[in-house]
Write a structure and sequence with these properties.
This protein is an alpha/beta fold and 400 residues long. It has two domains: 55 residues, DNA polymerase, domain 1 (Orthogonal Bundle), CATH 1.10.150; 301 residues, Aldolase class I (TIM Barrel, Alpha-Beta Barrel), CATH 3.20.20. It is 28% helix and 19% strand. The chain is built from ten helices and 13 strands. The strands form two sheets. Strands 1, 2, 3, 4, 5, 8, 9, 10, 11, 12 and 13 form an eleven-stranded mixed β-sheet that branches. Helix 6 links the parallel strand 9 and strand 10. Helix 1 crosses helix 2, helix 4 crosses helix 5 and helix 9 runs parallel beside helix 10.
Length: 400
């Protein structure tokens, strides 16, 4: 059965009809502030509170007059996720379970990268790490990455056979405000537990849209969230430090390339359509040829190159023949291959191929001239690694 891949599946109804400030662009805030009878400069103040400081309430916005804050509280709403649970892995990974306004649950994963350690960010270049202001014993700034894997939907419609999130089905899309607020709540938590050791305002350095859901299935809200997070008056992330992943929604791959400058990661995971369609139902709608053609047309501006993610499944897609076919498929494209040893999930029936097989696969790609890396799977002990995110027991909304 084909997954539901309409460009923008219906949202769950908002708690009320008031505008959600967290989702509004600066220009929309300017129009709202004018409508409320306030001076124009208040819009930028409000935007900075929302997206630079990540304010969780109107009370925090101390340089806004109290009557204005009270008016905002009456006439607008402010998205704020609640951290329902936090699990900490032995490797430092932190998995956050967030509760939404309508009692749905999503998960976000924070992954700290130590100096000299391969980054989680699948398309991070050597020059990408942020220089930490605190000097180490050498007297030089430390080069670090602190990456957050964000979710874009409650559940997922794509139905990939090896992914726990796919077992949930699609419950609903996240709004742009809910996507960005994952970043702000984790930033606030990290500031609290690492006082003096991180950037005081924004501890996170990198973002990957690889959590629960298919980002390009919720394109409008993902695009809005990128605009907010990259805005110079907001969180001010660099497009070089943001990666959006997709299982292969071809039309929106081209849109993403034309409308943003962020990086693209594509989950390929197989080298024939027969093989891929069994693992990823999306292949029945957009096969490998269509997917690769979209990737070839993806604008490679500002030095971008596509990362192809390849989850290695024991006895399924991990042979030397698979490596050779993958090399042939990607020949001539400016790409990087990110090999992901499978994180075993109960009941799904797939296994980790083991270190030797993974390294042999990587060496085959390198002999063919490809940059290939093996992702260090973080947070396996707390089910926070790739393909392990899922929150059971969430009912899908009834059709309206």
């Amino acid at each position: 059965m084909l997954p539901v891949v309409s460009p923008n599946p219906p949202q769950s109804p908002a708690p009320d009809e008031r505008p959600d400030l967290r989702t509004l662009s600066l220009s929309a805030l300017q129009a709202l502030v004018a409508l409320l009878g306030e001076k124009p400069f208040r819009a930028k103040q409000l935007f900075r509170w929302l997206h630079h400081k990540g304010a969780a309430s109107f009370d925090e916005m101390t340089d806004l007059a109290r009557p204005f804050r009270e008016q905002l509280a009456r006439e607008t709403q402010l998205t704020r996720l609640t951290a329902d649970a936090v699990q900490v892995s032995t490797d430092g990974t932190r998995k956050y379970r967030f509760r939404t306004w309508d009692n749905r649950f999503i998960e976000s994963v924070y992954m700290p990268d130590e100096v000299g350690e391969p980054a989680f960010d699948p398309d991070a270049d050597d020059e990408d790490p942020v220089e930490e202001p605190l000097a180490r014993s050498s007297g030089k700034p430390a080069r670090v990455r602190r990456t957050l894997c964000v979710s874009t939907q409650v559940g997922c419609a794509m139905g990939c056979r090896f992914c726990m999130t796919g077992t949930m089905g699609l419950v609903r899309n996240l709004t742009a405000g809910e996507i960005v607020d994952q970043v702000y709540r984790v930033n606030a938590d990290l500031r609290g537990i690492n006082k003096g050791e991180m950037d005081a305002q924004r501890p996170l350095t990198n973002l990957v849209y690889m959590g629960m859901g298919e980002p390009l299935h919720n394109y409008a809200n993902v695009k809005r969230s990128l605009d907010l997070l990259l805005h110079q008056d907001g969180a001010n992330f660099s497009h070089r430090h943001v990666t959006v992943s997709t299982s292969g929604l071809v039309p929106n791959i081209l849109r993403l390339g034309e409308e943003t400058q962020v990086k693209l990661a594509v989950s390929l995971n197989a080298t024939t359509d027969e093989q891929r369609a069994k693992l990823m139902p999306v292949d029945k709608k957009w096969n490998i040829a269509a997917l690769l053609e979209a990737c070839r047309q993806f604008p490679m501006k500002n030095g971008r190159r596509i990362t192809f993610e390849y989850v290695m499944l024991r006895g399924v897609n991990d042979t030397d023949e698979d490596a050779e076919r993958l090399s042939t498929l990607l020949a001539g494209m400016p790409v990087k291959v990110n090999l992901i040893p499978y994180n075993e999930n109960p009941g799904l029936g797939f296994g980790d191929p083991g270190v030797e097989r993974v390294q042999a696969f990587r060496r085959h790609l390198e002999r063919r001239g490809f940059a290939a890396m093996v992702r260090k799977n973080r947070g396996r002990d707390i089910a926070a690694a790739c393909g392990q995110l899922a929150v059971a027991g969430q009912e899908r909304p009834r059709a309206r």
